[in-house]
Design a protein that fits this description.
alpha+beta, binds ribavirin triphosphate
């Protein structure tokens, strides 16, 4: 009916171990669903130290890196791939600032988190990193491309 002229992107969203432990998985998934994005990958997963280090390799020199790796590997995470127009930037807005103290109310971190080191969710920071991170966290065949039967207004 209506073809979108905008670029469709993919982003990697992850509920971090604190989000899983606190029972926030459904709430977090719900925010992306309600916004109008399409879920293309989803799994509960205990990640290795090696995978966490690869994911956060750009932060290797930071003083908080060892603490970050301990945090991310401390329990299962929920890995998600989401698709949609402008999904990378839009997801970052829904998530809110890295430091929950700076995150606006209405954002996931603004509503649900208190500390930077326990900020419940991750979202890719560029379309390139979205693709890279989805390939890193999901095996071939785990990401599912499907066509919604309704709602040409959103997708
Ligand atoms: P994310 O990758 O998790 O979506 O976070 P981000 O882009 O908002 O933030 P980034 O600077 O890439 O940092 C990645 C994660 O590292 C932890 N962190 N701890 N000072 C600290 O203790 C500190 N700074 C960052 C956070 O969990 C942050 O989300």
């Amino acid at each position: 009916l209506i073809a979108s002229l905008e670029q469709v992107d993919q982003t990697y969203i992850m509920v971090k171990p604190d989000g899983v432990q606190r029972g926030l998985v459904g709430e977090i998934i719900s925010r992306f669903e309600k916004k109008g994005f399409k879920l293309t990958g989803l799994k509960l997963f205990q990640c290795s130290k090696e995978l966490a280090e690869e994911h956060y390799k750009d932060l290797k020199q930071k003083s908080f890196f060892p603490k970050l790796i301990d945090y991310i590997t401390s329990g299962p995470v929920v890995c998600m791939a989401w698709e949609g127009v402008g999904v990378v930037a839009s997801a970052r807005k829904l998530i809110g600032a890295t430091d929950p103290l700076q995150a606006e109310p209405g954002t996931i971190r603004g509503d649900l988190a208190v500390q930077t080191g326990r900020n419940v969710v991750h979202g890719s920071d560029s379309p390139e990193n979205g693709k890279r991170e989805i390939a890193l966290w999901f095996k071939e065949g785990e990401v599912c491309d499907w066509t919604p039967v309704q709602s040409p207004w959103l997708r």
